[in-house]
Amino acid sequence: IDITRWIRKEDYLESYLCLPGWGDINHFAVGSSFLRRHESLTVLQRYRHFRSEVLEVVVTGSSPFENRESLFGDLMEYNNGEDEMFSVLSKWATGVISERKIYFRVIVPEQEDDLAYYCIIRVQQSLSVSRLFVFTIDFHGEIDAERRLAVSSSFRENLKECTDIVILKKCIREKVAIRPSSPGKPWNPTWSEYFLHHKSWDLIKDNEVLPLITKRRHQIGGFFILHSDNDRAVFAKFVKNNSLSSSGNLNSDIVIYQVLSRTDGIFVDIHMESCRSTFYPFLSKSSSFSSIYEKVKKRDKDCAKNLRSRTHLLAALDKVNENAGGQFYNDGDCQAHDVLRLIRLSSRSQRKLRFFCEGSGSANETLYHLTTDHMTSTSFEHRAAKLLIDPYHLIGNHSGTWFIMRIDWYVLSIIQFSLRNYRVDDEGDGSTFRNMNFFTVGITALYQSDDDVKKNIEENSGNKNEHYFGVSDIADEVERAHGKNLSRALYLALRNSENSPATFTRDDISHALQFCSFEEVLQLPVSLDDLSMQLGSQVETMTGRKLLEVIQS
Length: 553
Hints:
Blueprint: H1 2-17, H2 33-39, H3 43-49, E1 51-59, H4 81-92, E2 95-98, E3 102-108, E4 117-125, E5 132-140, H5 145-159, E6 165-167, E7 196-203, H6 209-219, E8 224-228, E9 232-244, E10 250-262, E11 265-273, H7 288-315, H8 332-343, E12 347-355, H9 363-375, E13 384-386, E14 401-406, E15 411-417, E16 422-424, E17 431-442, H10 466-469, H11 471-495, H12 506-513, H13 528-532, H14 542-552
Antiparallel strand pairs: 1-5, 1-6, 2-3, 3-4, 4-5, 7-11, 8-9, 9-10, 10-11, 12-17, 13-14, 14-15, 15-17, 16-17
Helix pairs in contact: 7-8, 9-11, 11-12
């Protein structure tokens, strides 16, 4: 009896779904009972009475970021790919049953000897990833496969007009595996996840890891974003395998990559569609899964280390001596390690600063301290902080006093001021100089593995990036201040010549006077008769005594 009732009920439903074309009633009118009935159909009823085609798309929007609170907040814009998609769907469909959920399209209008043929388009947003949308086209009536494919192709062609969506080659919603957001909630894989290859790893905790990986994975890695928020980012990419499809082209497998930032750390999971007869692909270095896994894991881990070093060094600018773990970060050895990581990724530009020749007493030491003090003073236009690194500790090929300076929100510069003098005889004067190096790096350059950095620091030298990073103006400011400090150091050394004897070359004095300007501060009359009394080297005159008092005052 129950089976009979069920058959009768389904037969009534089938006859009701065939109504368009009978009588004078417009069953496709807005708000009609016929259209409302489609909203209440169950999955089993749709499976019994319709033939379905499924299409999945991913909205990309004008920007690959949704986390407006992150480092890239000024680059993020509203994701309008979804609006464009529904706009195209509304134009292609005949009418709307439920806004942004159910649409219908009349394929063949009713005729005198036949009923109308139509299809129902259902749109469902994925529950696990926000940018994945599933379109299910349910065809009713005796519509052959050729016409169904023609309708589906027409819908695809219209969607291709959207600039901010990606039409997927095949369905992937069953292959998206999501790690739980709560640390205390266990991850119980679904049945479909057992048919996916899976590897995971954890990263060093840093606030900028997720935004940077999101940017680089999308722009450099060629992944499209399935989901992105404050705590999680999910990406997907099709990679070709060695098998051939029926058309003779290489088949593609889907790779799902996700990054989750939780209170207990940052976790990365990579899933890949299983290849036939390949049960442990990560054991074979030649497999697609193994190569992707090894490469991405290495880059992610080194990127997290680079970002942590950047965060540690920038903390000195705010005089914050605590890291994310609550430990005091005032160890020069730790700072030296962080500096080494960043200068290997940076572009180096160099300036030569003039110093005094040998025998100048304390002038060079005074000049060195005047310039270093100026760089950390309020009169310096850019904020800089002196690092706690031993000036005689060799980092790469460099030693000296180290500074950290933030050029803008994304770019920082590590400055090395050498303690070593060297002579330049290009002009025949044998002038003495010390190097000041600017190691400048943008945050996007931090996504590199240690294996990618194969060149020596010296090979990255050159001033070609000075103007691009804005280092040129900063270096010019340091040079101008150093020139004034050089004149001041010369004056202080001359005044202190009794305690610390100093001798200066004519070229040193001429160079120092270039930064001096004449300003009359005192008028002292000198008698000619008094000057005529200077007959011997040991004679002390009234004029000499007066001049000595002026200089020492």
